[in-house]
Amino acid sequence: MESSTSPAVVRPHEPSHIYTNNNGYDASVQQEIPRTLTAAHSHSLHAAESDDDNDFDDIFDDDYHNDDGLGPDGEPDLARNYNRQRPLHSNQQKPAANTFNSVDDQISALSKHAAKIRLDDVKDGQTRDKDKADRATSEQVLDQRTRMILYQMINRGVVSEVHGAISTGKEANVYGAVAYEDDLTKVQRAVKVYKTAILSFKDRERYITGEHRFKAGADKGNNRKMVKLWAEKEFRNLRRIHAAGIACPEPIQLKLHVLVMGFLGDRRGWAYPRLRDANIPAEEAEQTWSGLYIQLLGIMRRLYQVCKLVHADLSEYNILYHNKQLYVIDVSQSVEHDHPRSLEFLRMDIKNTGDFFRRQGVDTLTDRVVFDFVIAPGGPVEEPGLKESIEQLYASRAISATDDKAVAEQEVDNEVFRQQYIPQTLEQVYDIEKDAERIGHGEGDKLVYRNLLADQVVLPKTADEHVSEEDESDEGAALDSEDESDEGSDDESKFAKGPPRGKRFEDKDEKKVSAEINVILFFIIPHSHLPFSFKST
Ligand SMILES: Nc1ncnc2c1ncn2[C@@H]1O[C@H](COP(=O)(O)OP(=O)(O)OP(=O)(O)O)[C@@H](O)[C@H]1O
Ligand SMILES: [Mg+2]
């Protein structure tokens, strides 16, 4: 919104604000600041919401933005979180003139780092195809705001130099960087810069809508906010995945649309190849590819069970490979498993990765078997149990991979499974009575959601759970009222020790399917028919 074009109409005998009972001073009046002040800096008090490339307020406003909500011990820092919300609830005005001055000062102070961003320093062959490499130089030009964020990070030692792009894409560029740990040891880092001028975000809304962590939703009208939300989502997901011990880049720092993470590559700054480009010697190809396939199934299950996430864009392009190890990257679109479309996304991930491994000649399991393996509530989530379970799945297959007819049947099953409708909430179950009848007749394993029917049906809540649920809802309410997303409200460190998030963490409006379906089926089906959980032994 523009500030008033007429000079401020505040007369000496009138207060410069209107006080409303219970509502404090009306901020709209505060916007009427002298035109000279706004003109001098070409931004209004609402500049943070504009797309002005020269607006740096949110970059220097540290209390508010450079904060993940966690204290040094990884636990939520309640005092800081409270303080972060204060500007929204307080009547205090920013001392506008001083803020502007200090921004100017900071810009000139930070500009001394300009020479440390050397984007022409691209490693030969690092960008994968020649056209892309040629385009890289022009595409990787950084806007003023991004530069300023990087200068600030350099100033704080998060990185000490930023080099050429490792990858330039539609939505983000990834740059190589170096930092000095303990002021001595040189380490490589990767800096992912989301592009703020992109239009393809409308497609991404489906990943955010329905996420309880992003209840405020996406503000489609504001690219900058949208991109910030996206970077935040990647940072939080990375933190959760990393804490669970799944190989991925270590999340290091996030500032608006700039994410600094650990570098997956060698010490000289060469990034590991994508799985698609993995160079596996022919003599060990067969064994290595099947080993990697099994490793990936384990990763998908751990992601789902321990991190409560579905990657939602898992393919040979978003997995890096080194030395028989897979690294999961690009998790900005990953969703919580209670997202209304998470099972659809999971099925897509299974298809894409399965197709890739089939092309490498791996004898893969059917999509349905993998799907069940990933979502089955019982069974191991750690090695070596995971691998053993997969071996059992192979062993219990009725068919042999060398049998042409059996392979054809497998393909048909995959096709059928991919078309099958997956209900995710009770409302979506097409005909609950019919399904219940099938279960009663011992045909429950034909239901695509059978693994959501835990053998432990919903038990009455313990007193503990009641209390925790209230805590969570209080916190949620406070953060929902905030314009920002609920950054920091969710302590990711709890995912380090297995799956402690019980039903209390589920979104209240989108109650988890399994619970709902179970409750109903519990009453209409003999209990002895219920268990369908994946058996590991
Ligand atoms: N931590 C990292 N270490 C090394 N290389 C990385 C790292 N993160 C990303 N890369 C490289 O950058 C490439 C792009 O990263 P990523 O997949 O996260 O971006 P993206 O969202 O797919 O971007 P776009 O969709 O715009 O192409 C990866 O294929 C990988 O080669
Ligand atoms: Mg990618």
UniProtKB/TrEMBL annotation:
Feature: compositional bias, Acidic residues: 50-61, 467-490
CDD domains, alphabetized: RIO1_euk
Any one GO CC term of the record: cytoplasm
Lineage of producing organism: Eukaryota, Fungi, Dikarya, Ascomycota, Pezizomycotina
Polar residues composition-biased segments: 18-33
Record Pfam families: RIO1
Recorded GO MF terms: ATP binding; hydrolase activity; metal ion binding; protein serine/threonine kinase activity
Gene3D superfamilies: Phosphorylase Kinase, domain 1, Transferase(Phosphotransferase) domain 1
Reactions mediated catalytically: ATP + H2O = ADP + phosphate + H(+); L-threonyl-[protein] + ATP = O-phospho-L-threonyl-[protein] + ADP + H(+); L-seryl-[protein] + ATP = O-phospho-L-seryl-[protein] + ADP + H(+)
Predominant location: cytoplasm
Catalytic residues (positions): D313, D330
Binding site for ATP: K192, G262, L264
Keywords in alphabetical order: ATP-binding, Cytoplasm, Hydrolase, Kinase, Magnesium, Metal-binding, Nucleotide-binding, Ribosome biogenesis, Serine/threonine-protein kinase, Transferase
PANTHER family: SERINE/THREONINE-PROTEIN KINASE RIO1
Family: Belongs to the protein kinase superfamily. RIO-type Ser/Thr kinase family.
Location in or out of the cell: Cytoplasm
Chain positions covered by the region annotation Disordered: 1-81, 463-510
One Gene Ontology biological process: ribosome biogenesis
Top-level lineage group: Eukaryota
EC number, UniProt record: 2.7.11.1
Domain (RIO kinase) ranges: 131-376
Protein name (Swiss-Prot/TrEMBL): Serine/threonine-protein kinase RIO1
